[in-house]
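Much of what follows relies on a compact textual record of a protein's fold. Think of the row as the fold of the chain written in a discrete alphabet. An example makes this concrete, so a full record is given next.


***
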Amino acid sequence: MAKILITGMSGTGKSTALEQLRLRGHATVDTDTDAWSRWVRLPDGSRDWIWREQAISELLSGHRDGHLFVAGCKTNQGAFYPLFDQVVLFSAPVDVLLARVAARTTNPYGKRDDERDAILGHLEAVEPLLRATATAEIDTTVPVERVVRRLEELAGS
């Protein structure tokens, strides 16, 4: 019963992979909702969308039935790494990411210029940090079926 974190920049395919995993009978949680994440005000006045610590702790400590795949990319996720069996970074080239966020209909993020600029900034500043702490990386330019099979392999399926 592995617990796998799927992380990465917007447009890497986290939600798509989660949906396919769910259809294959796995427990999945997309943390980009108010149930799992919350806005906080930082000392500099900016805002950050972070995990709700108690909710994530309860999810990870209470899960006992089958593999659990959790997706998200939050500044406080590293505090929970010891509770995961694998931390999997999804990656793709910048042109792929921008094309995906422009075309997707399930999430409005990435449509505006400032949001695309933020994605580019995160790709430069955040992705290397994620890569340094990930236990595995998957290039999501391959078909989603291959991505999902690799996640299942990492879980021990």
